[in-house]
Amino acid sequence: MSNSGKVWDIREAYKEQRNNTWSRGTGQAWCVGGNDGAASKHVDVVTISSTGNAADFGDLTTARLDMPAGVASSTRGVCMGGQSPSYTNVIDSMQLSSAGNAADFGDSQQDGGYRSAHSNNIRGISFSIYTPSVSNPFMSNVIEFVTMSNVGNATDFGDLSETRMANSGFGNNINAFSAAGSTNNALSGDSDRIDKVVIATTGNSTDYADLSTASTSSAGFGSTTRGCVAGGRISGSSRNANITQNDLTSGATGSDFGDLSATRRDLPGADNNVRGVTMGGNAPGQLNTIEFIQIDSGGNAQDFGDLTVARSNGTTWDNSSAGINYDEIQRPSVNYMPGSGRALYIGGTAAPSGSKTIDMFNINTLGNASDFGDVITTRTQQTSCSNLTRALMVAGEISAPSASDNVEAIQIASQGNTNDFGNLNTAVRLGTALANSTRAVMCGGRTPADAGSNEIQYKDLSTAGDFTDFGDLSVGRRGSGTGSSSTRGLIGAGLDPAVSNVIDYITIGSTGNATDFGDLTSARGYVAALSSAVRAVWGGGQDPAYINVMDYVTIASTGNGTDFGDLLDNSGYMGASSNSTRGVFAGGLTSGSPSGYNVIQYMTIATTGDTVDFGDLINNKTYTGLTSDSHGGLQG
Top-level CATH class of 342-634? Predict the structure, then answer.
């Protein structure tokens, strides 16, 4: 069993090491972008220790080729630059724990492709580029880095000792190496040089050693002590099958390792510290071939399987490469633990326009929200839900007055930006969502035809993809509020066009139509709701004036709502979420703040009474969704 990606108790990890059961994990490799006849945004994945064909994993934000830089930690892959169709400085990132699409990470210092790269779990290094941003010969010797855990722009590291492009990268968790490449932009000035930098520092590279064979556009991979370069161009157009090796501890000139099964160029490589793989390439024409070698033994490459699409000139990620040191025990975070009460207020309207900002606060404390990251697409009238690790922003209005079917996702533990998750079965805005640990459920909303929807839609939260029809509400409506336990979801209030006091319930783990639960104390629309595992609470709303009323019910029973207390102000269009004991309402519209309200207020769910001031959002916000990692659907 692999310890890869786990958070360990120190004593438990020590016992694993003493018993010789502490492993690096088998790891995976991703083939990212490339040329499949045109620029590709496609991402494939394989498990390096096995053999077989690649599986589709997701898409980059934009298609790109011409060897973008690919770097990865144990949890995140980052793709820097490339051509799409002009050269770009865009950096994408993708969470590697489950399939899905990439999100924007930041920008490289220069537009360009034909990069080499290497990373450890902390930093990703990109070496030299072909770029139209500089005068002829359009090459830059710049080295730049990103911090793998933090979204943002790349930072200058230093300069390569020799200006060249289409190099190959490998290394370990201490040093990064950039090998081979072309000293001219015709890809015909083959170099045998290997440059070295120390990843944790900054500064110019040093000339470390020479390869046994000069080449360009080759695959790079290795172990902690050995670097390998496979295939590539020789003298511009010729292809080569040679695999060379260099000792990363001695600085000695390289030697022959073996051969690929055929000559090819423009191929990326990856490794898990034991086995190296090459993915695709050109021979001529794009290839779907994946081959592998055992790094410690030498010899010729063997067939591994096929990519889903033949391509060349892409890049790779590997989450157990020689650069990722699993011997360093990953201790529990002192900043965040899943289920500890993190709440996210995702996007919405910050008058007079939509907001991309994701606000963050901890429900257990008091204070103001801080910035978490951004959504991909500005929108309003959306909703949100989450399990312990992943939050979704669902539907809404991107281009007024059209409803959207788009769903974006964010990893709650890692501050940053959302990525594309999939689509609803039916586009809606002003809907409401709930979730338990495994399933997200979207309820009602306003359809593109401007009618209240009675459709319930659901999706397994463990993988990205599209929602499926679940059943129907008892009545079509928009502006409802939801609460849930781990097994039962409640949907209350709303309007279409008259306001409603109806509460429906569903069994989250099944499918089928909703059943009548009871009625709230008054009919209203644009209400917010939250829950513990035992009790659901609805607050505020509009009929037609804003109200401050809160109602509650016991989730496991059926029956009508009971008065809970009052909000700080008459409010509607708020966000709401909870942990096991405390509920929070945030933002919204009030009669005194018709363009938005920034107040966060809270109460204790198991009692009754009025809300109390908690703190403030970053901006006045409304028309959005608030969710957390510890709401009622995740308890029990």
Answer: mainly beta
